[in-house]
Design goal:
- By secondary structure, this protein is α/β, with parallel strands linked by helices.
- The chain has three domains: 32-128 and 363-382, NIF3 (NGG1p interacting factor 3)-like (Udp-n-acetylmuramoylalanyl-d-glutamate--2,6- Diaminopimelate Ligase, Chain: A, domain 1, 3-Layer(aba) Sandwich), CATH 3.40.1390.30; 135-156 and 267-354, NIF3 (NGG1p interacting factor 3)-like (Udp-n-acetylmuramoylalanyl-d-glutamate--2,6- Diaminopimelate Ligase, Chain: A, domain 1), CATH 3.40.1390.30; 161-260, Alpha-Beta Plaits (2-Layer Sandwich).
- Helices cover 25% and strands 25% of the residues.
- It has eleven helices and 15 strands.
- It has helices at 32-42, 76-84, 109-119, 128-132, 138-146, 173-182, 237-247, 281-291, 321-326, 356-360, 363-374; strands at residues 55-58, 68-71, 89-92, 123-126, 149-156, 161-169, 196-205, 220-233, 255-259, 268-279, 298-299, 307-316, 331-335, 350-353, 380-382.
- It has a six-stranded mixed sheet. A five-stranded mixed sheet has the order 1-4-3-2-15, sandwiched between helices.
- Helix 6 (173-182) packs antiparallel against helix 7 (237-247).
- The chain is globular, with a radius of gyration of 25 Å.
- Mean pLDDT is 92; it is low at 1-27.
- GO terms for molecular function: hydrolase activity; metal ion binding.
- Keywords: Hydrolase, Metal-binding.
- It comes from Maribacter litoralis.
Length: 393
């Protein structure tokens, strides 16, 4: 087992954690589900990419957790480390199971990890692209390390905002609205409790099998109602629907939920921000290599222009080159660029590839920092295991 200490960087964005709809947990006993619910308030799984495999990958959600080991990747030495540190939950950024497993015979490292985890009763959870797309996730962390300000999402995720329309008796409007707001409806960026209301009359006729709370069976009833509309993130749909049905006085609740085209500026891939002061290209590349602990920086042609606006995308980011250029970034920091993709800079931007591991290495620090803030009396460990598969000579 080989362990290596890594730098812990406390994110500037920690100040934003208190804005999350979480209550602090101060329990001595917590289950896997308790922990994952906390993680999913930070990085909701509905925002993961469709191709991804996120959530609880190994283990039982009802198991009591003795300790948490946070890692970038789950390898055999990471499971050994979890055993040594009495951690029976591994929170791994990358999912160990990505494609389907038809056999588990131990013939490759994925199968051996799963077998070893099951033998030692260790659960494995991954949030991967859900954390990539999170407002204070992977790319916000890179921005923190590089000292960027005025940050915003580079490629906002589409179809993330929904709109609820429902009709409420006037006498019950505040009760239902408050229940909806508490469940997360009406949250728009830095604003909460947002809605629009229109007053009118609703009509209905209850049959003999109905049990109307207002009006009588067999008689058409006219009720003074308020139509309200409010938007919400798609991760809150289940909670909001439950709140509506439990707080609304009617036996049958009329409501409609639609996905809208509006862009959610806080969810999506990559980020773009600004340095406090312009620096030369060589100075920026030198600082980038130092701050990101990179062994080397592969980059496109220098343009002899100062660097001020910086786009970042952790992991494989070639698909965002066009977005970085469109955003007028001076440099785009990412990983896994192929030979011909460097041509796409087209003398408009500097493309800087620092390595996949290097762009995501601080992700586990981010998760440990977050979990420690939310459950400060719980055993949470930053993995010391080496998981970078790339070596340099």
């Amino acid at each position: 087992m080989i362990w290596e200490k890594e730098v812990f960087v406390t994110p500037a964005s920690q100040r934003n954690y208190n804005n999350l709809s979480l209550n602090n947990f101060f329990f001595n006993k917590m289950t896997v589900k308790d922990i994952t619910q906390i993680l999913e308030e930070f990085a909701p799984l509905p925002y993961a990419e469709d191709f991804d495999n996120v959530g609880l990958l190994v283990g039982n959600a009802t198991n009591e957790v003795s300790g948490i080991l946070v890692t970038l990747d789950t390898l055999e030495n990471v499971v050994d480390e979890a055993v040594a540190k009495n951690c029976n939950l591994i929170v791994s950024f990358h999912p160990i199971i990505f494609g389907g497993l038809k056999k588990i015979t131990g013939k490759n490292y994925v199968e051996r990890v799963v077998i070893k985890a099951i033998k030692n009763d260790i659960s494995i959870y991954s949030n991967h692209t859900a954390l990539d797309n999170a407002r204070y996730g992977v790319n916000a962390k890179i921005c923190d390390v590089l000292g960027l300000s005025n940050t915003k999402v580079l490629i906002p995720q589409k179809n993330t905002i929904k709109k609820l329309t429902t009709y409420i008796p006037k006498n019950n409007i505040e009760e239902v609205k408050n229940a909806l707001f508490k469940a997360g409806a009406g949250n728009i960026g830095n604003y909460s409790n947002c809605s629009f209301s229109v007053e009118g009359n609703g009509s209905y006729k209850a049959n003999e099998e109905a049990n109307p709370t207002i009006g009588e069976k067999g008689t058409t009833h006219i009720e003074n109602e308020i139509m309200i509309t409010c938007v919400f993130g798609k991760d809150r749909e289940s909670a909001i629907t439950k709140a509506l049905l439990s707080s609304h006085p009617y036996e049958e609740v009329a409501y409609d939920i639609q996905t809208i085209e509006n862009t959610n500026q806080h969810i999506g891939m990559g980020m773009i921000g600004e340095l406090d002061e312009e620096v030369s290209e060589l100075e920026f590349l030198k600082e980038l290599k130092l701050k990101m602990n990179a062994k080397l920086v592969r980059h496109s042609a220098l343009l002899k222009k100062p660097i001020k606006k910086v786009a970042v995308l952790g992991g494989s980011g070639s698909f965002a080159i066009g977005a970085a250029k469109a955003a007028k970034a001076d440099v785009f920091v990412t990983a896994d660029l192929k030979y011909h993709q460097f041509y796409e800079a087209e003398n408009q931007i500097i493309l800087a590839d620092i390595g996949h591991f290097e762009t995501e290495q601080f992700t586990k620090n981010l998760l440990v920092d977050y979990l420690t803030k939310k459950i400060p009396n719980f055993a949470i460990h930053l993995s010391e295991s080496i998981t970078n598969p790339i070596n340099y000579f």
